[in-house]
Here is the input.
Amino acid sequence: MAMTPRELVALLSRCTAKIRQVSPELNELDGRLGDGDLGATLEKCARLMDEGLDASAPDIPSVFNAASMTCVRASGSSFGTLLGVAFFTAAKKSAGKTTLENGDIPPLLDDILAALMARGGASLGDKTVLDPLDAVRRALSETPPGQDFFPVARRAVKDTLAEFRRKPNKIGRARMFAERSVGLDDPGMVAFSYLVDAAAGLAINQQEV
Here is the structure.
């Protein structure tokens, strides 16, 4: 399946709508282990993205670049910065593309993961957004080209959340409350799960148990 720039903008718009809805929940989750501003930061990213995205963009990199710039403008947390880096990497790696094919996604996620690890200093296993991102990357790389990617991605994220819920956070402010973080979901991982759900077209007010 090929995704056009217009369809990519529609996908990102579903994500921004979801973030606006769950912003209070993300603030609450973040407040248990961090500064309590993750939801507010992502809500600002979402608002600016809604204003900056253009459905008439000529190609895929243009959409990703616009998304990156809005996140950079809104950034008030490490997660916002990482979103900006992710979109910038996606723009660079999709240069010249007027559509995004299923087969383009796993290598794109591989490049994004490498860029985020280099920028943020976290490693796989630290209980951060990198872990579900890597799980999605691995799952999609093993998915036949004709199969719908979204159910595979959502299951990979859900399984990763369940796995890491039993583990402590190892980086960021949350590492200071390592024992307290056992049994809690990492807020960035939860935010990523909502983004995947929204990208998949899941109803904005519905969350799989």
